[in-house]
Design brief:
binds ligand NPW; UDP-N-acetylmuramoyl-L-alanine:D-glutamate ligase; alpha/beta; binds potassium ion; about 450 residues; Rossmann fold; binds adenosine-5'-diphosphate; ten-stranded mixed beta sheet
Length: about 450
């Protein structure tokens, strides 16, 4: 089992293609089943294991794992939902010489290994499988899913079973699949670990990757406040939101954060306040990124300011909150300066409509249509540009409190202004810092605490 940070996230079809490109299908199943067997053996500590096998290759992995456990002298029983149907599963089942019990009334065991369905699940589970599976998972003291919990749709993360039971551990085979990073599937999986199968990075070269911690260097010895990145924030009707973004930008490492507009002088004294008589005030070439949207309001003045900034095309932009409701996405593709859009689900729908597929698919489609970096926020956050996507599978659900999105906007703007990588890398760095600050904040914190925590989060890198 190896770390999964930065690794690929691969759809069912791409996984099958990688398997074909590899060629040695028997070898892959051997490695998968053995990897599962080794992990289960370590965790089972001698307790009896029940392996449930389905008709396809997921079931084949189960037969290989059961055979390995038996050969190691472990107490193991096998039950099946159906006879093996794929050639690989037939060959694997033939090497299991013990009894195979029918699923319906099989006795539970302390350790349950679910190898019923993996990436080949094609429709909802019917009750003849779902009911005994749920009973056995719930009766086990440790339930382990092989590749995916049976009942989880690989590419969308949807649940194709009612009252899906919860597993302690899911052993992803070869690579993570979208369901390993998407809700509601993820909440049923317990800890997720990867069993490497030796598939080449080239064969797995999906365009979607798990987020990894950013590499953020300390300021150069000769750095000054502007070289560290200057962030300008357009203030609208609710100045508090803009202040949160400004504080987050500074605590993420920006050297200078200025609020442009009518803001009260509340908040950290380090935040600079400037009037916004006309948009020419934002022509300052030292500005590295402009934030527009947090607390902006949706009146005509706000709409005009956004349109002016987009048309001017003079600075990188981070467009959030209210500005997303005022945005005409058709104005984006021809810009030279990067644009990062940070919608939550409601804002995403307002700009791009419902879209189709998973949040990964929808974010990628939006990025392709606009040329912008799209940060689709939610329990899982997807950061996409025209060519690739980076997924943050969330973490602390206490982030669901007002103002945390404004903090994220500031963190992303700081990374963009500080030129921490390409725009998609800057956006991903901001998302990572924000989530890690959220993890450090624990429970029932407020957005102000989250902004404060960014300083120590940055220090941890
Ligand atoms: N890719 C790789 O690199 C590697 C992949 N490996 C493993 O292969 C797994 C994928 O195997 P797979 O393609 O055979 O699909 P799998 O999940 O076993 O199910 C297909 C079977 O289930 C059936 N079926 C489907 N839904 C059903 C339902 N609701 N109710 C009832 N039946 C249903 C379906 O029947 P059908 O839809 O045709 O009627 C078919 O018979 C993957 O997750 C991993 O574990 C590793 O071994 C090695 C490396
Ligand atoms: N359940 C959750 N789990 C993890 N992160 C979450 C959850 N809910 C919200 N977040 C994160 O919190 C932030 C909320 O942003 P947003 O909805 O724009 O809030 P606001 O508009 O109040 O600032 C986003 O970064 C989002 O990814
Ligand atoms: K499974």
């Amino acid at each position: 089992m190896i770390a999964i940070e930065g690794g690929p996230v691969v759809t069912a079809a791409a996984m099958r293609a990688a398997e074909q490109a590899h060629g040695d299908l028997t070898g892959l199943m051997e490695r998968a089943g053995r990897g599962v067997g080794e992990a289960v053996r370590r965790l089972a500590a001698g307790a009896e294991v029940l392996v449930l096998c389905g008709p396809g290759n997921n079931g084949g992995d189960g037969y290989v794992a059961a055979t390995y456990l038996r050969d190691m002298g472990h107490r193991v029983r096998v039950a099946c939902t159906d006879v093996p149907r794929s050639d690989l599963a037939k060959a694997a089942a033939a090497r299991w010489t013990g009894p195979v019990e029918p699923l319906a009334d099989v006795r539970s065991a302390a350790i349950l290994v679910d190898a019923v369905f993996g990436t080949g699940l094609s429709r909802p589970l019917d009750a003849t499988i779902a009911d005994p599976l749920r009973r056995l998972v719930e009766a086990a003291s440790l339930a382990v899913a092989v590749d995916l919990p049976s009942g989880v749709a690989t590419d969308s993360g949807a649940l194709l079973v009612e009252d899906a039971p919860g597993y302690a551990l899911t052993l992803a085979l070869g690579a993570l699949k979208p369901a390993h990073v998407l809700q509601p599937a993820m909440r049923t999986m317990g800890a997720i670990r990867l069993v490497p199968l030796g598939l080449s990075a080239h064969d797995l070269s999906g365009a979607v990757a798990m987020i990894a911690p950013p590499r953020l260097a300390a300021p150069d010895p000769d750095s000054h406040k502007y070289s560290r990145g200057m962030v300008a924030i357009v203030v609208g009707q609710m100045a508090g939101a803009a202040r949160l973004s400004a504080e987050a930008a500074l605590r993420s490492g920006a050297g200078y954060a200025a609020l442009y507009g009518d803001a009260s002088e509340l908040g950290p004294a380090a935040i600079v306040h400037r009037p916004l008589a006309d948009m020419a005030s934002l022509d300052d070439p030292r500005i590295g990124a402009i934030v527009i949207g947090p607390g902006l309001g949706r009146d005509e003045a706000a709409r005009a300011r956004l349109a002016t900034l987009i048309a001017a095309d003079r600075h990188p932009l981070v467009v959030d909150g209210d500005a997303l409701h005022l945005l005409d996405p058709a104005t984006l593709p021809d810009r030279d300066c990067p644009v990062i859009l940070t919608p939550h689900a409601g804002e995403f729908k307002a700009v791009f409509g419902e879209g189709s597929g998973s949040v990964i698919d929808r974010a990628r489609d939006a990025a392709r249509a606009t040329g912008a970096v799209v940060v689709f926020k939610g329990a899982t956050t997807v950061i996409a540009n025209r060519h690739r996507a980076i997924v943050h599978p969330g973490g602390n659900s206490w982030l669901s409190t007002a103002g945390t999105g404004d903090v994220l906007t500031g963190a992303i703007a700081a990374m963009l202004a500080g030129e921490h990588g390409t725009p998609i890398e800057a956006a991903a760095a901001g998302v990572w810092l924000h989530a890690e600050a959220g993890r450090r904040c624990g429970t029932s914190f407020i957005a102000d605490d989250l902004a404060t925590a960014l300083t120590l989060t940055r220090a941890s890198l």
